[in-house]
Amino acid sequence: MTPDSRPHLRIADYNYDLPTNRIAMRPLDERDASRLLVYRRATNSVEHRVFRDLPGLLPAHSLLVVNRSRVVAARLPLFKPTGGAAEVLLTRPVGPSADPAVVLASSDPSEWECLVGGRNVTPGMRLACAHDAVHVDVLGRKGTEGVVRISWPDTRSLSQVLSDVGHVPLPPYIKREDDAQDQHRYQTVFARDEGSVAAPTAGLHITDRVLQHLSGRGIGVAEVTLHVGLGTFQPVEADDARDHVMHAERIEIQADQLRHIVEHCRSSAPFVTVVGTTSLRTLESVYWFGCRLAAGEEPDSLDVDQWSAFDLSPLPREEALDHVLRWMNGKGLAKLWGETRLMLAPGAHLGVVDALVTNFHQPGNTLLLLVAAVAGDPQWRSVYQAALDSGYRFLSYGDSSLILR
């Protein structure tokens, strides 16, 4: 497609009425006890199950792809020099490294993009934490977004500092303060790579018991990483999705995990299920990167444009992903990382996914556009209406769905 042929998508067409009492404020006592709405696109049918049934709903010997990003306690309650309250939510490191793992493991000061809360917080101001445990210097601010430099007076790593003074960055629609339960439940059981400011919530339902049952059916698990960033907290303000600018989010994939995925796609049962919109965007981003390589491009890094799924020419998934693997091997890379702005919406080509596990998302945002791309448009609306009619719990701590393309 050319830019002029990208579909006109009115954001208003992806709204629905979500009563506030349907938003889950707390997780269930058991992760895998959440409900699971199963939608089969081929038959346009809905079935109501429980999440721990997931292994039996997927083809034996298929593959499950999960996001192993770990949420950082990145919300810092602070004070202005006047004593007034302020708040900073660290969203993305920009120096001395863009790699959250490097910055969080360091005891040196670092600079971060962030969301800033509080009145009259201006560049040049130093914000402080209780007991002077952290200093936050405001380097720039535009609206709610800013850049800050964070430092502290000892040799702890930034990860340890945030663990001591930071708070779990619960989404703004969860109208309560975070507590000890959230430190455990707002992480997936496979969370490993620190860097997200919101959980990859579809994975919150998975337990060791579910993983054991998946293994018992010969269903493999592959891991990718997308660090959820600023875009999660930003509403779509454009009337037309073509005018919305996606924020960049860091993605990573290990060579051994990509090899696992490529080998599976070449198998006799190449069915791929992704857990969460973050895993889907990561895998599709790697796919489109492979399509660029196959077309003869020579990019320096894994950076994926917003409109790749509309503008580029697709390939069979095993071919595109194998191009990436061979490119990594040629450069001696054990890990590939970069940034993606990939938008997936009705009209986009989906190169890898056969099924998606995902929670129920807010009205009128880019995640709902992604769901519409997978479930079909307007079929997504009947799926959401079925969930509303059947009492499902919505958003981050809510119930889940399995969409089978």
Any overview of this molecule?
By secondary structure, this protein is an alpha/beta fold. It folds into 2 domains: about 290 residues, 3-Layer(aba) Sandwich (QueA-like); about 90 residues, QueA-like (Thrombin, subunit H). Helix content is about 25%, strand content about 25%. The protein has a 10-stranded mixed sheet with strand order 2-1-18-17-14-3-12-13-16-15. The chain has a 6-stranded antiparallel sheet with strand order 5-6-7-10-9-8, with no helix packed on it. A two-stranded parallel sheet has the order 4-11. Strand 5 and strand 6 form a beta hairpin. Helix 6 runs antiparallel to helix 9.
- CATH homologous superfamily designation of the largest domain: QueA-like
Q: Strand sequence of the main sheet, in spatial order?
A: 2-1-18-17-14-3-12-13-16-15
Order of helices and strands: EEHEEEEHEEEEHHEHEEHEHEHHEEHHE
- Please identify, by name, the CATH architecture of the largest domain: 3-Layer(aba) Sandwich
* Class by SSE composition: alpha/beta
Total beta strand runs: 18
Percent of residues in β-strands = 25-35%
